[in-house]
Amino acid sequence: MTKMRESFTAVLERARTLTGEFATEPYEVAWAAEARWFVRTLERTDPGTRLRVTTQISPDGLNWCDLDPARELAGDLESWTSEGFGGWLRLKGTVESEPGATDPGAKVMIYLALKS
């Protein structure tokens, strides 16, 4: 008998405007074998606004370490997989801008798609 795979998509940020340093709420993923991130940028305060994110893992949802190097998100919709994660996942990142720009910010949607 073939076991049906389970899947679930969590919306971690819903039209939230990010500024400076940020981290998403942690999500418990111990049951999952696959994880895929989707970050949709709805708007940026100016064209030079950049998002840099790093996937983080945790054994307990409290203490965190980086799973992979930081990546710059330049497009309106970016996606990547995370492999070899433990019990918990989150994204940490920064919103940056060109020198002299004030209050860089980006309104985003962040999804975490999981499969067993």
Can you describe what's shown?
The strands form two sheets. Strands 2, 3, 5, 6, 7 and 9 form a six-stranded antiparallel β-sheet that branches. The chain is mostly beta strands and 116 residues long. The mean pLDDT is 94. It has no helices and ten strands. Helices cover 0% and strands 59% of the residues. It has one domain (10-115): Jelly Rolls. It is elongated.
Q: What is the total number of structural domains?
A: 1
Name the average pLDDT.
Answer: 94
Number of strands: 10
Q: Give the oligomer, counting copies of the same chain as homo and different chains as hetero.
A: single chain
Beta content: over 45%
Distance between the termini: 17 Å
- The global form is elongated
Please state the CA-atom Rg, rounded to the nearest Å.
15 Å
Low-confidence stretches: none
CATH class designation = Mainly Beta
Separate helix tally: 0
Order of helices and strands, N to C?
EEEEEEEEEE
* Percent range of helical residues: under 10%
Instruction: Assign the structural class, choosing from mainly alpha, mainly beta, alpha/beta, alpha+beta, or little secondary structure.
Output: mainly beta
CATH topology name, in short, is Jelly Rolls
CATH architecture: Sandwich
Taking the sheet with the most strands, its summary is: 6 strands, antiparallel
